[in-house]
Amino acid sequence: MIPMWSKCRQRRLLLFSNHTEPSPAVGECRQKKLDEPHPVWATHRDVSFAVSFCARRPGVERAVFSLKQSPCPHCGCVGTLNRHSRLRGNDPHTADGQTERGQRVFCSNRGQRGGCGRTFSCFLAEVLPRHTITAPLVWRWLMQLLAGLSLKAAVEKLRLPFALETLGRLRHRWRRGLDQVRTRLCREQSPPASNHPDPGLQTVEHLRRVFAAGVCPPADFQLHFQHPFMG
């Protein structure tokens, strides 16, 4: 005679095995997905951040936010991107205020979508990621340095809402990422002749030459190269 506890254990094992084993249809679907050829550009190293920055100007937002035609920067899938939520951050012009900085984008993996289920940020062109200061303020500050003013004199003249130490750290970060900025600028145009011995001021002149038609070259840099201006 088989004890009662043994019968119950056998029933639990049978019920668990029925729930964990996939049906033949699910197995065929999984095998079909594994057998499908994957595109070569599906690795995140080969896919550029095509929608990392977008313009606020009229007539451009629709083209930039055509997410269905853009690849996911993580998995490279096309046609899986959806708007997720808005990006908000500190407003440098208002105390304790917030402003819109961009859009979160979701690569959908629901239903029949082949996305990766991850999200990434699409910033406005005048926003510097990981910085409260905006690209227009940075450009005004760089132009004052190019005119010969010191760091303190430039901050006082522009009345920037930041401490002097904050701008000092920003200048250090700017100098540390000059190689990436200058490499991308040289792909567009050769640097102009400069009388400044400072590589940072030489880069400012080069930036002004490449984006001569723009109002804010740092924002144009981010929009054109889809790469953060401050690293």
Secondary-structure element sequence? HHEHEEEHHHHHH
The DSSP helix count reads 9
Rg calc: 26 Å
Strand order, sheet with most strands: 1-4-3-2
Shape from CA axes?
globular
Proportion of residues in helical segments? 40-55%
Structurally, how many domains make up the residues? 2
Structural class: alpha+beta
The count of β-strands is 4
Contiguous uncertain segments of 5+ residues = 12-23, 25-51, 59-64
Separation, N- and C-terminal Cα atoms? 75 Å
Largest sheet: 4 strands, mixed
Q: What do the pLDDT scores average to?
A: 78
Our estimate of the beta-strand percent is 5-15%
Short description:
This protein has two domains: 40-124, no CATH class; 135-225, no CATH class. The protein has nine helices and four strands.
Name some characteristics of this structure.
231 residues, alpha+beta, four-stranded mixed sheet, 9 helices, globular
